[in-house]
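In the previous chapter we treated chains in isolation. Here, by contrast, the input contains two separate entities that must be folded as one system, with a combined length of 601 residues.
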Amino acid sequence: MFGGVGALLGRELKGQVRSRRAPATLTIYLALMVVVLLGSLLVSGAASDYGASASSGQTLFIILAMTQTALILLLGPVFAAGALAGERERQTFDTLVSTRMSSAGIVFGKVSAAVVFMVLLATSSLPLMALAYVYGGVGPGTLFAVYAWDVLLIVWVTALATACSSLVGRTIWAAVVTYVLVFLSVFMTGFLEVVLQALRSSGGADQPSLFFLYLNPFAGLWELAIPGAREEIADAARFGSFVVWGGLWHAVVSAVSLGLAVWAASPLRRLSGRRRSLPTGP
Amino acid sequence: MTGTDVATGAAALLEVSSLVKRYGRVPALTGVDLRVREGSIHGLVGTNGAGKTTLLRILATVLRADAGTVRLAGVDVLSRPREARALFGFMPDFFGVYEDLSVAEYLDFFGAAYGLDAGSRGERIPELLALTHLEGKADSDVQALSRGMQQRLCLARALVHRPALLLLDEPASGLDPRGRAELRDILKDLAARGVAVLISSHILTELADVCTEVTIIEQGRVIASGPVEGIGGARRIRTLVARLAGDPAPWLEIIAAQPGVERAESAPGGAVEIGFAGDLTAQTSLVAALVGAGVPLAALEAPRALEEAYFESTQGLVT
């Protein structure tokens, strides 16, 4: 089923490494992270304050983690939206699907390549994140948990973009649709949560459900990166942990997206059970 | 499990039966039957929109058929496409290449995509480069190759897994005369190695040069199929061109009086166009009769047999 995935992964990574896009993206990503880091240090005054407290380190870490997650959501579609639409645009799709690779193999090869590159990108900022240690207040467990959450979001956004790439014919439209979906996940869920809270308050409900925040990719990060947030969420949110249920939601969306991408990548997808015999003559 | 052609005794590698394809309400193929023998070069001739590309894309399992059966070396292509893909190589009419790879990397990737192990790929790539006259280009970037070289590279890609059948959709389009001649030589070489080739083209003279069999398709249906000589020779009247030493005018009546000659007319360049009813044996007798009658015959050619057969077969159907 997944024959040729390794070959496709290798081909995609070679293409990424040899293109100008990869070093340009890496440079922009790290430059933005450095700008945010320096800006945070200057604004907080922690850069010149030798007695800066552990809370300064925590604040710095939270800002960097939020920035990293935002950049992942912004850059993910860039690398995955062309996965299958790009093959169609380059007129290489027919030659690829007429090999012995299955549609699932092709999709997983493409997604794997995008995920690997995005994880490498996220990992490249580890030295910047480690600066938070200088100030204390952030443990290695927190750092690991934040990176694990980001990996989940990388899989989620690349799966979404690959599904759009498979369903939409052109790379640019696949990227646009993915950005719309990401925007809805980030901002619309927050807006709907505010509306829901207002409705519940007017109805006299005492405990907020925070239902829409489970769909928000930043909610899990909030729980993992902010000290004490887990306990607050356990008290306030009706369904419990954002990490558990939000993670499950993003994993399910990823799985459904990949399934859609595989279905749409099959050139014979409408064939199943519908091929019929010619009517016979008298 | 392959069928056997009654006329030739050769095994039919590919058998297409009652194939139907519609795009919405527009019929693209309306019950196409086709047989391609092992080791043959089978031409697929037709106008734009005749259904050639649709047929080849269905055979290549990149397009769904609405009805009919396709068997390749006993494998049901429509219901077991992945199994069938090991048996054919496909070169579409419009294709791109991965320009960020070298020639060897390109072939290696597709070898892996067809499930070949690293050792087999290592042996196969130099063979393919030699076959397609791309020796010395293994480390060249694909994007640096000329159009003709990319065309041959795509052919090499289609052959990487040693398929029994090669499906080529207009492979000569965009090639210069030298490129076309090289492609012809490669196809003949492949046929000599036992690979069957199903090739579509608009350039009929080219197909006549290289093909052993031909199928004429129009408006989604097969209107003639068989050996090239058979399709040309089965027609009642063929056009021959006689080239004479000197002015042909005094000889027209004598030529027209020969057995089998329906008409003899002057043609540009001092030639005589002869409408002739007869097979190759009768044509040989005509040469002897003309020489015996004192006609200064320098050459007798039938350069457009396939072209004429095509136009005669499709007369009135082309819109």
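Residues 271-282 of chain A have pLDDT under 50 and may be disordered. The first helix of chain A runs from residue 5 to 18. Compare these points with the single-chain example from earlier in the chapter.
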